[in-house]
Specification:
6 helices; binds adenosine-5'-triphosphate; 27% strand; ATP binding; 217 residues; globular; Rossmann fold; 28% helix; ABC_transporter-like_ATP-bd; alpha/beta; single chain; 6-stranded mixed β-sheet
Length: 217
């Protein structure tokens, strides 16, 4: 499969009524490539990430995951993708630790694989596993969502404003995790309004008026 991009999007159009949020967005990312998605408020960043994740239907265009059309319907394909939206959602009645176990089971991860536990510790959540995410602060919920996403070792990682609510220490942890995921061959798209500490993307994707342009530093 070498040479086949992990993610390829061609001519994505997404409309909300009369508003055309995306007007033909195209991109391609290989294994181990990380792109930051930038653009002003309302430029369409969240919309693009939701379309790439298979959460929103496209009005036109096509998304391919490892060379196969992807629309979020196929379970096996879905296990390859992790998406952390701008406001992560959790089950009301499950503790943080139960979320971790649920994601491990749902994705058939090896129970002996303690990456999730290691991630909980790196984000300082190891003493908070018996609490409900509802009782977490916004930054703690973001950390838990990131733990659940990275623990799956996805081929494609999509992150909507992942640094937003994180404190400087947690931001450094996230940058280190992105670096490790990139080294392991994960393709990454993360929307960001600012430069972040400790991580330099391979490409910057700029959304303007629903159109996407790529800059490779
Ligand atoms: N559910 C919706 N219904 C109607 N319009 C929507 C919906 N979601 C997004 N839009 C519109 O689509 C456009 C793109 O919105 P989107 O949230 O993707 O932008 P964004 O770049 O993520 O913005 P921000 O930086 O503020 O998070 C905006 O004009 C927005 O008003």
């Amino acid at each position: 499969m070498s040479g086949v991009p992990v993610l390829r999007a061609e001519g994505i159009v997404r409309r909300y009524g009369a508003v055309e949020a995306l007007s033909g967005a195209s991109l391609s990312l290989s294994a181990g490539e990380a792109a930051f998605l930038v653009g002003s408020n309302g430029a369409g960043k969240s919309t693009l990430l939701r379309c790439l994740a298979g959460w929103d239907a496209l009005d036109e265009g096509r998304v391919e995951l490892l060379g196969r059309r992807f629309d979020g319907a196929d379970r096996a394909q879905r296990t390859l993708v992790a998406f952390v939206p701008d406001v992560p959602a959790f089950y009301d009645d499950l503790t943080a630790g139960e979320h971790v176990r649920f994601v491990q089971r749902a994705n058939r991860l090896d129970p002996a694989d303690d990456l999730a536990e290691e991630l909980m510790t790196r984000f300082g959540l190891d003493g908070k596993r018996d609490l409900l995410p509802l009782s977490y602060s916004r930054g703690m919920r973001q950390k838990l969502a990131l733990v659940l996403a990275f623990a799956r070792r996805p081929r494609l990682l999509l992150l909507d404003e992942p640094y937003g609510p994180l404190d400087p220490e947690a931001s450094r942890v996230l940058s280190a995790l992105l670096e490790e995921a990139r080294a392991a061959g994960t393709a990454i798209v993360a929307s960001c309004h600012h430069d972040v500490p400790g991580f330099c993307p391979d490409a910057v994707l700029r959304l303007e008026d629903g159109r996407l342009s790529a800059e490779r530093p």
